[in-house]
Amino acid sequence: MASWANAQVAIDKLTVNGQSTLLDFNDDINNTNVIILPIVDTVPTSLSNNNNGTFLLDASDKIVKVYEADEWKYLSDEGDTSMVVKNLSPSTNQGVIIGEKESSADGVVVLESPNKAMILPKVFRPHENVKSPYPGSMCYDTESKSLAIFDGKVWNYWK
Q1: What is the pTM (predicted TM-score) of this model?
Q2: What residues in the chain have per-residue pLDDT under 70?
């Protein structure tokens, strides 16, 4: 079932931070919740520039990737997907679009806005505080002030 929301969305908190936020997560100093990226068997090859900013974990080579400037870029070395539990149910919908009624981008959750952004979950030292992270976990490390992505083996940090 496809959904549409044209509002600011707060997850695990009552309000979003700022006027330019489309999706915002708990930013409590003790937060240890993260986003888990989609883990795909086959990386899409026929994407358009509308899909720039797509994040995923490629199960075939166990590497976290982002689609940027119309090509896949690596965000990790080879990780470990042995603990991944596959969902064998057939997909019957488009996913959820937040911010607009429709989008030409293809994804499970698509944030579509000309003037709002997503704020990642904020976690202090995820490599120490996120217990048993799942491959594809992603957050913002408040200590190093960087994007943190778990590839199934180690946390990778990007500034």
Answers
A1: 0.83
A2: 1-6, 91-94
Backbone angles phi, psi at 51, to 5 degrees: -100, 5
The H or E element containing residue 140 is: strand 137-141
- The model's pLDDT over 36-73, given as tens digits with 9 standing for 90+, comes to 999 989 898 878 777 888 999 999 999 999 999 989 99
Token pair 């979950």 is found at: 121
Outline where the chain has alpha helix (H): 126-129
Cα angle: 93, vertex 66, 49; to 5 degrees: 70
CB count within 10 Å of CB 141 equals: 21
Task: Sheet containing 39-40: give its strands across.
Answer: 39-40, 54-58, 63-68, 71-74
Provide the residue type at 34 as one letter: V
For residue 97, give the nearest of 143, 60, 50, 139 by alpha carbon: 50
